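=== RUN LOG ===
request id: a7f3
mode: sequence -> structure
chains: 1
length: 564
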Amino acid sequence: MKIASITIQNFRSIRQARKIQLKQLTTLVGRNNEGKSNIVRAFVAATQILVETYARPRFARPDIPARLTTRHYSWRSDFPIGLQAKQPEGQSVFELEFELSDAEVGQFQTEIGSTLNGTLPIRLTLGDRSMKIEVAKQGPGGKALTAKSDKIARFISNRIEVAHVPAVRTASSSVRIVNQLVERELETPELEAEYTKALKRLESLQRPILDRLSVNIKETLVSFLPDIKDVRIEVRSNERYEALRRSCEIIVDDGTATLLQVKGDGVQSLAALGLMRHVTEAALGDKALIIAIEEPESHLHSEAIHDLHGVIRELSQRHQIILTTHNPLFVDRMNVGSNILVGDQRAQPARTVDEIRTVLGVRVSDNLKHADLILVVEGEDDKIALQAVLAAHSAPLKKAFAEGLLAVDFLTGAGKLNYKLTQLKAAVCDYFCFLDHDQAGMAAIEAAKQEGLLSESDYKLALRPGATETEFEDLLDPQSYAPAILKQFNVDLAPIDSINAKIKWSQKVSLLFQRAGMPWTDALSRQVKFSVAIAVDAAPAQAVRPQFVPLIQSLASALESRLA
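=== RESULT ===
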């Protein structure tokens, strides 16, 4: 079961937000005080009330809806304050559209006795002292389903769980999450006869004490109020159950065992988020888990933010996630419509990455502004030559380059890879890397992976089997550039294949230049590489050695897949 959309009316700063579409991972972005957190809290309030009201029918009492409304919704603080004087009977309305699987549609027909087309819209109306649940379908079918709203709400509550991680994550937040975990885990033994027997024994031990206190209080009160007939102190059964499930503390031993609340903000925040991850791994049975996270980046160092981003992406493969953020890292660059722009009293899916950048206040250079994918290479010469080669070997990439959907950016040195990727992340850019297979290139790739900036599917290397190190130029046919080098520098590179095959291209070229009486310097290296790139750009179709065409085709295929 998934939640396909939510509509919110008259909740805090939100007067009306219609049919906000919720994907597997939905990201709410917007400036401060625009309503992102209120959308999340409206969602949490509606789902928690729906789930918790009917999750434990053993403890159901007539006053439970009012109690849960007080717990998750307070009319005085949650109904728009500006409307309270004019609408003292005003109500907050939430509509949740649930999407059922084929199996759940069959289960619904069996348990409820009604048929569905796969969607189930539930309207929850909350007032100061009221709560109403109904099925938001038009016509007689809707009325018939609304008459079964209690059973339908219980049907839903048996199939979903909601976890909420607020922006302010203190030690008490972690304790609250642990309490919820403990409470849920202890529900299983509560169904066992031995557990029930132990509770009855506990009740029998408490009863004489409560009776004695009742008599003492009665005697005291009768002296002031003679009409009192009896006084009785009771501990309700459900409260005894709940008391045994709660009130825990968390001790963290990182060299010294201390309570979590004395740790720093970052540790407390990560503890709450880590426990959230445990919630997803706890026994859910057949239930779907929906996780709502406010500002996951709060209190965290950049490295921890990157790690957390990976965790959230992993969780979104199994569970539905809704989050608010100011950090471009958490924006879903590949599915632009799953980012909801909140502002100007509206909440609507983003249509372009540029809209997201505008909301986040991100600036990006013109050549990257409209690109769907950035190919990162080491130098400007690699950019010139590789763009020409890829366009010559792939019609889709040629079109993508022409339309600005694919752009190439360069590092001026492999050591600057982390800095460049961090910049691209901040600019809400998707990227792919192609670097030399040498010591600098491999070290840069490993460092980026350790920082969480790259995964194994985000890069390729100019790999030449049998060679210790390889540069991009090693993949090129000398006939495509040797005439240009001979003309410009009076050095013949035609014999380059006769030099040690294990060393990389620039080392071979340096030997040929030195044999020709020209000292090899970094400045000369840059000039020669740039001349090679210009020569390749002029005739890219035959520039790659035949044995390395599959490598170029593999790179092209990877880029085509990312663009698709």
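=== NOTES ===
The two ends are 28 Å apart (CA to CA).
The mean pLDDT is 83.
=== END ===
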